[in-house]
Structures are given as C-alpha cells and as structure tokens.
C-alpha cells in the first residue's frame, strides 16, 4: 500500500470517528436544540465521506469498510435523553458542550489536513477521480470546522464567565 492508500485509510477512519463523535455529542446536548440538529446534519456529511472513500479504496489497493451501523434506540438512548433533560442548561453542561465543540473542531481539522494531502497527491498524479472526491468532500469538512469554531466563539464568553 502506498502513501495515498495509507492516507485514504486514515481519513476514512477519521471520518467514521467524526460521524460517531458528532452523533454522540448531539445526544449529550439534546436540550441545546440548535447544536443537536446541526450536529446531526453535519454528521451525515462524514458518513457520506466515509462511504465515498470506501468506494474509492480498491482503486488504490485498500479495502475500507462501509459506514458503521447506528445503534438501535433502546434503554441507553432513553437514559441519555433523560439525563440530558435533567441536566438542562446548568453551567457544567455548558462547559461540557465547549469541551465537545473543541474536540469536534480538532477532529474536523485533522480530516481537513488529510483531505488537503490527498488533493495535492491527486494533482501530482493526475488522479481525476480522487481530485473530484476531494473537491466534493473537503468543502463540507471545512464547513464543519467553521461551524464548530463559530459555536465556540458564540458560547465561550457566556459559558466561561458564568461557570
């Protein structure tokens, strides 16, 4: 496996992890409706990215699994929902939200760097299919980063001062 294959594998794993992290944070902060809905929406992008990377993998000598299955709703989901409602908007919950946003931002940044490396490799090797994939997916990852950064800017003053 060459460097492109290795980078595809790492990026694929990062995108799958980012999807799961976004969905988990959305559940933890269910009472923060805007955050919950946007996090759920942008998690779909990471799922799509992982699916598209998996489809391209064999062309670069790499087998990548498809998207992870989401756990079926059950007792754990109901418990998380109740805990989220019970915690509501306490200061500790706000600090946890900032912590989650920081981690999500760093994860999206890591993915963005890998997309950039693949873009450079695609240009150097004239791999049009890889370049099209990067051109389609990387802007969404950049939007994930901008969203987390904006949320941190908006929430930090209020949450850090009141904590």
What can you see in these coordinates?
Helices cover 82% and strands 0% of the residues. The protein has five helices and no strands. The chain has helices at residues 3-28, 33-56, 75-87, 91-125, 128-162. Mean pLDDT is 88; it is low at 72-76. The chain is elongated, with a radius of gyration of 18 Å.
How many angstroms does the end-to-end distance come to?
49 Å
Summed up, the domain count is: 1
- What's the assembly state of these chains? single chain
Number of strands: 0
Question: DSSP helix count?
Answer: 5
Instruction: Give the CA-based shape.
Output: elongated
What's the alpha carbon Rg, rounded to whole Å?
18 Å
CATH superfamily: Ferritin, core subunit, four-helix bundle
CATH architecture descriptor text: Up-down Bundle
Write the layout of secondary structure elements.
Blueprint: H1 3-28, H2 33-56, H3 75-87, H4 91-125, H5 128-162
Helix pairs in contact: 1-2, 1-4, 2-5, 4-5
Keywords, separated by commas or semicolons:
elongated; mainly alpha; 163 residues; Ferritin
Concise synopsis of the structure shown:
The chain is mostly helical and 163 residues long. It has helices at residues 3-28, 33-56, 75-87, 91-125, 128-162.
């Amino acid at each position: 496996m060459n460097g492109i294959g290795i980078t595809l594998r790492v990026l694929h794993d990062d995108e799958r992890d980012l999807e799961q992290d976004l969905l988990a944070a959305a559940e933890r902060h269910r009472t923060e409706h805007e955050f919950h809905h946007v996090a759920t929406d942008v998690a779909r992008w990471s799922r799509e990215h992982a699916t598209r990377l998996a489809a391209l993998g064999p062309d670069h000598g790499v087998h990548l699994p498809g998207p992870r299955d989401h756990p079926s709703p059950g007792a754990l989901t109901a418990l998380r929902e109740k805990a989220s409602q019970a915690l509501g908007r306490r200061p500790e919950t706000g600090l946890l939200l900032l912590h989650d946003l920081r981690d999500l931002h760093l994860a999206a940044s890591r993915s963005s760097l890998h997309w950039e490396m693949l873009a450079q490799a695609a240009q150097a090797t004239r791999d049009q299919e890889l370049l099209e994939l990067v051109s389609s997916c990387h802007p969404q990852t950049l939007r994930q980063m901008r969203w987390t950064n904006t949320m941190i800017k908006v929430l930090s003053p209020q949450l850090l001062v009141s904590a």
